[in-house]
Amino acid sequence: MRDYDEVTAFLGEWGPFQRLIFFLLSASIIPNGFTGLSSVFLIATPEHRCRVPDAANLSSAWRNHTVPLRLRDGREVPHSCRRYRLATIANFSALGLEPGRDVDLGQLEQESCLDGWEFSQDVYLSTIVTEWNLVCEDDWKAPLTISLFFVGVLLGSFISGQLSDRFGRKNVLFVTMGMQTGFSFLQIFSKNFEMFVVLFVLVGMGQISNYVAAFVLGMAIRLEDRNSWQVSSYNILYVRSVHILCIWLHGAATVCLLHPRLADAAGGADDAGGAMRGTLVVHP
């Protein structure tokens, strides 16, 4: 029975064409790192406090004391989700009473942020949190965004292999790259939080699907003793895209786990050539 290397010999030697294809496949996954980390910036929650309408008839002293203070990390900071009842402090302002001197602020009635929030722009100009006020009672929605993104990654992991076997990995690679790019672009025009997370799930599905397809195609262009280098370089490009320094230890067991043994999947070495041709057609 012929071994795997003998069956895949029709792919040719490690020449300029194979190096070009491998480089392009590796480069195609670089945006995946950006997508994976984009949620860190998209769901960031800036410092915020209750908004006071400009039309509120308040003196400058009362306008500076509309939000109660609370302890955080041993220091007093403005409350993010509460303010003093606006009608009450407007009456005090009209009477000429001063906060802290004539009025005990600790005894004032409080209310929620009925007029929205003011967000600091010291770090972030805009995030989905500032866009749709995902704070206070809705603060659970921001971390849910990441969870739903990885739900998409999980779903893509389940279906990408079956789709690749049915339609070919090259087709799946191009379709899912377009899927990831297109839905990422559509997120810009999201009208609400629900639309944003649905698109993010689809982005996650496209991301993992094109990664797996590109990985298997890249490993199909191989020679003896090059698998460990190819696996390492492929993952280094992904790590580089997320700006993380990692040391990858690829032992023989890891290579065996990741290696696409298409001969076994095809039911024997005699059918492996057909299976490989369905995966990748190379014309050196």
From TrEMBL:
Protein name: Solute carrier family 22 member 5
InterPro entries per record: MFS, MFS_dom, MFS_trans_sf, Sugar_transporter_CS
Transmembrane segments: 20-44, 142-160, 172-189, 196-217
Annotated ranges, domain Major facilitator superfamily (MFS) profile: 88-284
Entry keyword set: Membrane, Transmembrane, Transmembrane helix
Membrane topology: Multi-pass membrane protein
Main localization category: membrane
Record's subcellular location: Membrane
Organism per entry: Homo sapiens (Human)
GO cellular component term of the entry, any: membrane
MF (Gene Ontology): transmembrane transporter activity
